[in-house]
């Protein structure tokens, strides 16, 4: 009678614990958004018996309701239900994105075929920053449902102050663009400090490569005249903008002006005019 020899364990990863430590904290903003929506849904369910037969379900830019439906949990808590579902989708999507970002990259694509220890910490910081950013965006979007839900629960005509809707849109659109770089950079700095504690230091090549990119994943290489370039490994697939080129800077400024300035301005003007 023979016995199979158990396989010997592979070499342990000396950086696994450092890379995992504190990872759960990056999910707190998304958890807060989910709990906020869940709380609104519960409040709507408890208040349902005392509400009139029809309630407002849509508001114009000036905060006045312009559509009504028969009272039900779905019509009362439609916004929180959609936001809670979106939080669930994001919670499922983020691990898939993290798995894709962690795959080895092809040699020559501005990164080694196998990530070195420094790059692993940098990629972990990027993944955590992206998780925090998604949570912050979902929290901002979820906050938009608070005034409309509470005004219906409170009875009355359901009207909101004229500035509520444009202010909410400004916070979501402008806040997302303004927070993107700082949030990811914050998490990358934290992982660089953790890498130093683990004895991992960047090589001159790593430092040169880091200098070519912003925390938000945009290239900043003035020696490259291309406007659109392949994304940095760890930031997904596809292309991104090279803000080191004149055309890239113009593209980013124009996009920011449209999303964070022009669109909110239109909403503010429409709401002020209709008040």
Order of helices and strands: HHEEHHHHHHEEH
- Give the low-confidence spans: 1-10, 103-113
Radius of gyration: 24 Å
Distance between the termini: 89 Å
Based on DSSP secondary structure assignment, what is the total number of beta strands?
A: 4
> How would a crystallographer describe the biggest sheet?
2 strands, antiparallel
Read across the widest sheet, the strand sequence of neighbours is: 1-2
Specify the overall morphology.
Answer: flat
Mean pLDDT: 89
What fraction strand? 5-15%
Secondary-structure class: mainly alpha
Number of helical segments with 4 or more residues: 9
Organism: Micrococcus flavus
InterPro entries: DUF1648
Protein name: Putative membrane protein
Layout of helices and strands, plus pairs?
Elements: H1 16-20, H2 28-47, E1 54-59, E2 65-70, H3 73-76, H4 78-101, H5 117-143, H6 145-153, H7 164-197, H8 204-210, E3 228-230, E4 239-241, H9 246-274
Antiparallel strand pairs: 1-2, 3-4
Describe the overall structure.
With 275 residues, this protein is mainly α. It has a domain at 25-216. The protein is 58% helix and 7% strand. The chain is built from nine helices and four strands, in the order ααββααααααββα. The chain has helices at 16-20, 28-47, 73-76, 78-101, 117-143, 145-153, 164-197, 204-210, 246-274, and strands spanning 54-59, 65-70, 228-230, 239-241. It has a two-stranded antiparallel sheet with strand order 1-2. β1 (54-59) and β2 form a beta hairpin. α4 (78-101) packs antiparallel against α5 (117-143). Residues 1-10 and 103-113 have low confidence and may be disordered.
